[in-house]
Amino acid sequence: MIRIRAVLDILGYGTALLGFFPLCPYLDPLSLVVFPAAFFAGIAADRTGRRPASWVFTGAALLFFGYYFLQFHRDNLVGPAVNLLVVFLAVRLAGEKTPRHYLQIFALSLFALASSSLFSLSAAFLVFLMVMLVLIAFALVILTFYQADASLSVSRPGLGKILSVAAIMPAGAVPLMFLFFAILPRTQYPLWGFLNVAGKKEVGFAESVRPGSAASIGEARSIVFRATCERLPQNELYWRGIVLNTFDGSTWARTAVPAGEVPGAVRGHVVRQTIYPEPSRNRYLFALDIPRQVKGVRAFLATDFVLGLPSVAAKRLKYDVVSIISRTIPVSRGIDSAFYLRLPPRVPERMLVLGRRIGERGKDEGEKVRLLEQFYRAQRLDYATKDLPVGDDPLDEFLFVEKRGHCEYFASSFAVLLRAAGVPARLVGGYLGGEYNDIGGYYVVSDDMAHVWVEAYITGRGWIQIDPSSFAANFAGRSERLHARFMRRLQMYADALNYYWNLSVISYDLDRQLQVITAAGSSLKGVALPGRLRPALLWWLVPLVAIGLIPAARTKRRFSREERLVAQFLAVARKRFRVETTPATGLLELAAAIGNPAVDRFVAMYCGAVYRDRKLSSDELRTLRHLIRTMNADRREKERSS
Amino acid sequence: MALSGVLGWLNIRGLDARLDVPDEIYRGLDTLVTVRLANRKRLPSFLLTARVCGTTASFHLLDRRGGERRAVIVRFPERGRTHIATAEICSPFPVNFFVRCTRLAIDHQVVVFPAPAPCPVAGDGAHAAESGLLSTAIKGYEGEMAKISDYSGGEPLKLIHWRLSARHEALKVKELTATAQEPVVLDVEAFAGRDIEGNLACAAFMVNRLIRTNHPVGLRLGGRLIAPAVSRPHRLRLLGELAVYDQD
To answer: What is the pTM assigned to this prediction?
Structure first.
């Protein structure tokens, strides 16, 4: 025998864990400690039956409430609220558990899980939600038994029966869920994370480049976008985002592209990509260098091949891009050289001298670029993300003192030196590389792949892509990550799940729904059979359908009209007069036993026709049906009055 | 929520209720009644309470196409015919947000006998005279001598009081009071000094007491006479007559 109370406890603790786990990454250390402690204390107390008095728990809850209440702030509403939820749940788990308390545990767990969707809309949420709904459905049913009899024990098969009937609720809710999924409005962003972006320090891609602003950069690995396309060598995966064409001495930024710059025809390998960016407040779209065409989103393509949105996207995006893999952007009518040679008033002396010396030594732009590359290689610079040069002249420090930095240092200093040497130059911001997911067939590009490189203008050829970071002595291993093979595989599966979740759930909208319907319609129209097959198919189809329909018709006809009528009559008579009938009971015998005028009339009329081998006339049929209805009404009246 | 409503609705559908009531029920006394619930549908039913005759019986699990029985103690407040029309079946299943109820027809007819109230019985000797319960119609053959009367021709010869007859012109016979084994006919309306309910209670007591000690008991009630007998069916018949006295 199994105690109902034990089942209820297991379900309660399970539900609480399901509420806690998805929130873990967003909780304070305090609640991260309090919850597990209370969880195990609760289990111990349930086993021993000894626990502190209830005022201890009330007091603790009040203390935690006070602590988190003080942290509430206009900019920080959700953080304290979710921590408070988790702490309340912890207090409830540790304390005495009456039926009301169990309900509180279920509600708090559900709220905790729901609140995790403020931070992240991953596919895992669906899994957690499904499991939790099933557990809560079971738990509510078991709680009902517990309320009926707290000391109740059930046998194992009995428990199985209870749970299998309880499982009808979540199972039946699934079709309803799909219905509501189709009709209810939804958000495409984790609400809190999205609204809160402005308050946090951005990592990864930025709309400006400012080397020397931080001594180290984080290794954030959050996903920026996924791109389905053919598999390419890693060194061809330059995802172009923004072109920064103005340097003010500390920051590279984007200003309007000078008019009159007309790109020429690009030649190279054509790659088509479909890109699914994660929601962000970024106004620039990414695509493999060099994007030539974009579809599926209202975006403009600038003359320097920057894809921009008119405003921050209000929903999850998906767009198709056609790119040409090439290191050169031909320019048909030349460029505004003065604009791309502009230097800030204050450039470190050593850099200015170096740039001018290269400018004097190189005969043309191509040679100047080569000379500068030689200088970079000779300097034996290190690619690094920690202990970076900071201070008033971070670029000078990077080149001549520390000799270590990341792509921003390499690209910024290279572009400044090019400009000083008289070669028009600009910075390109985007991403380099990508992790290919063979399960989903797409590249995952994450924040830590953010990259900046340089484009130099060489007369006669156009803009040439140069990646100064590749001149670093240790650059080759930068984008390689060491993961255990198994973990990598697991991560790929998880990410593929997320990808399909985004594809089919989060970015599901009316457009997609209409697409599905249109596609279904057109594919039906498109069903074309070879001309000769059509009559043959028809000849086969008609008999097949007919054979399929025969059993249905036979079931319907198995009972005659009269037989159905008598069955109805007997059913009503059994209920109305509480008589037992068997197949052997004769109608006349029954009428005699009951002694009711309506029954007598029915039997007389029925037997008058059927027992004389005559079918009932439609008038008789109507009268008989009326008699049955009257008896039935009588029965209901009698039941009501009693 | 909607689905739990449907499950709750289904849970109390397809049920049949029956009562097993003993054939001897006395007014105001605890009686063991068995409530039988049967489940006709394909789903099991859970957490049912059947409310019948003012008491409830709980059924935690009723298998599909199965049945269960529970004994409950019932007290019937009134004597006479009682009709138990319905049982109210309620259940908080599946979630205890609402309790759904339905009424199942039982249509059970019971006859509640008057509660037996002890009173002296003829043959108890000491109390026989003062109680005056037995009518003069009750004559015995083996008890104490009650009086002497004239021989009417029907008395057994052994009752003739020969010595007294010798002193008189006529034959005198002894009239003896009845003893245990003598047939007793109770004339409830003639019982003295009580209201009718008290008399019925007393009669019920005497019927039980006398028949248990093997006295044939008959009943004179409402102008009818039921001949004395000692069987159990006869006892129940007498009690039934007492139960429905003045009710038709």
So the answer is: 0.54
